[in-house]
Amino acid sequence: MIRGSCSQADIASLYGNNQCTSIAVTAAMYHAMKCVNKWKRKDIDTVIKQGDRNHGLFREDFRFSDKKDGRVAIFDLPMKFPVRVKDKKAVAVKTGEWGGPVFAPDGYDDEFRFSCPTLRDVLEQQLKPNRSVLTTIEQYSLLFMKVGTDIWLFDSHSRNRKGKYTSFFGKAFAAPFSSMDDLEKYIRKNYGTDDLNYNATSIKIWLPNEYASRDQAIVDSLEHKLKASALDKLCAKFAKKLQKLEAERKKVKKIDCENSPGSLGASNDVHLPDV
C-alpha cells in the first residue's frame, strides 16, 4: 500500500471532502504519465491537490454540475473533457457507463448480468493497461487500474493502514490486489454490506504531444467548447429565474390592483341601515 501524507478531507477547499470523482479522474491521468506501481507518497499528494483544482474547473469553469452538494457525479461528466496536472493537459474519454449491484445477489442469472453487470463483471471486461475504471460505490468514488496481472485501487478518502474509513489521521492511498477475489473481500470489509450498488465508467486518457501545436489546439478547442456550453447553461438558468421573478411580479401587481380602492374587484358599496 502506498499512502499519501493527506486525504481529500485535509485540503483547504470550497468543496471540502466532496472532490473524490474529480480526484479519481486526475489519478487516471497521473497513472497515464507515471505507472501507479511506481508512485510514492509525494505522487499521492500531487494527485489529491491537482484533483481538487480539477474539481474547481469541473464545477466552476465547465459547470458539469451545479448541485448544492458540491460534488461531480460520474453521469455529470461528458464523453470527452480536459484534465490537468500542473502545467500538463490531457483529455479523458469515457468509453462506456454501467451500473448495478457490486456483488451478485442470489438468482442473478446471465439475463440480469447482461443489462446490469456486477462490478466484478465490469472490471474483468473493461479494465485494461491503457484504460482505467472510475467507480462510485455509495458515496465513494474510486479508481481501478490494471498493471500486469494486478488490480490497483486508488482511494482519495481518509483511511487507516487497513483501509477502514477514519475521521482522524487517515490518508489517501493506492494498493494492489493480486486477484478479483481479494479485491471483493476488501470491498466487502471496507465499503459496506453485500447490498452495495455502483456506477462506473471506463476512462481512457489521451496525452497530447506538448511539442505538437495541433495536439495542443485540440485540447484548447475542447476547453473553449465546454466553457461556451457552461456559459449557455448559466444564461439559461438566469433567464429561467428572471421569468419566474417576472411571473411573481405580475401576480403581485394583479393582487394589488384587485385590492386597490375603486377597482372592480374591491367592494366599495355603502350599506345603509334599514329604516
Number of DSSP strands? 8
- Which CATH class? Alpha Beta
Mean pLDDT: 87
In this structure, how is the largest beta sheet organized?
8 strands, antiparallel
Radius of gyration: 26 Å
Order of helices and strands: EHHEEHHEEEEHEH
- Overall number of domains: 1
C-alpha termini separation: 100 Å
Query: What is the spatial order of strands in the main beta sheet?
Result: 1-7-6-5-4-8-3-2
Number of helices: 6
CATH architectural label: Alpha-Beta Complex
Beta-strand percentage range: 15-25%
Low-confidence stretches: none
Query: Which fold name corresponds to the CATH topology?
Result: Cathepsin B, Chain A
Classify the secondary structure makeup into a structural class: alpha+beta
Shape: globular
Range of helix content: 25-40%
Topology overview:
Blueprint: E1 2-3, H1 20-33, H2 41-61, E2 80-85, E3 88-101, H3 110-115, H4 119-126, E4 132-137, E5 140-147, E6 150-159, E7 171-177, H5 180-191, E8 197-206, H6 213-259
Antiparallel strand pairs: 1-7, 2-3, 3-8, 4-5, 4-8, 5-6, 6-7
Keywords:
Cathepsin B, Chain A, 6 helices, alpha+beta, single chain, coiled coil, 275 residues, eight-stranded antiparallel sheet
